[in-house]
Write a structure and sequence with these properties.
It is built from nine helices and six strands, in the order βααααβαβααβαββα. It is α/β, with parallel strands linked by helices and 218 residues long. The chain has two domains: 136 residues, HAD superfamily/HAD-like (Rossmann fold, 3-Layer(aba) Sandwich); 74 residues. Strand 4, helix 8 and strand 5 form a beta-alpha-beta unit. The chain binds magnesium ion. The site of magnesium ion has 7 residues, from loops.
Length: 218
Amino acid sequence: MLFDFGGTLDADGVYWSPRFHAAYRAAGGSLDFAAFDPIFKATDEALARLPGIQALGFRAAIEAQSRLLAARLPDRVDADALTDRLHTDAVTIVTRNRPILERLRRRYRLGIVSNFTGNLQPCLEELDLARLFVVVSDSTVVGWSKPDARIFAHTLAALQVPAQRAWMVGDNFEADIRGAANLGMQTCWLAPAERVAPDGPAPTARIQSLPDVERVLA
Ligand SMILES: [Mg+2]
């Protein structure tokens, strides 16, 4: 069974950009999401190039991105306030999800396939999730990004599970669902109710938060 990380294990299908935007507004920021999003995307690229990024754990990575963001935003916002809000919200969801993953792990071999910045392993260790996964594929480390079939095939080979018997659970339709469906995997799309599914083949199942995945598999 494969999982995405960001938005899937640490949030209920909400991307990092709207999460940061909500924290920014709560800290007194004035930009609407349309103006905020390109600035946020620029910090994603800056974060990926940050010296030492490979060693940063979960909170340190959020802190680094909060600082990059605060330096680029037109209004003065407290980077520490962004860090605290993002980190607290994510840890709350991870803490809720961890027992579910612990149960699934008794029935399935679990892996993670993530488009990440090379530091997913230290992030998972900090969140006490690393021990639950047999294999962790971080795109920066393995050299392929979702939806490239090679990152899925590489991870399934490490689990020794054929694609037809495997599930992919993720929140990004293009990267996670289409990518995995192209290999013949069963797919579970984690998305808020209001998110519209793109045209084309539907996922095998759709859920609104990770705890619902057990109902899908039952
Ligand atoms: Mg995601």
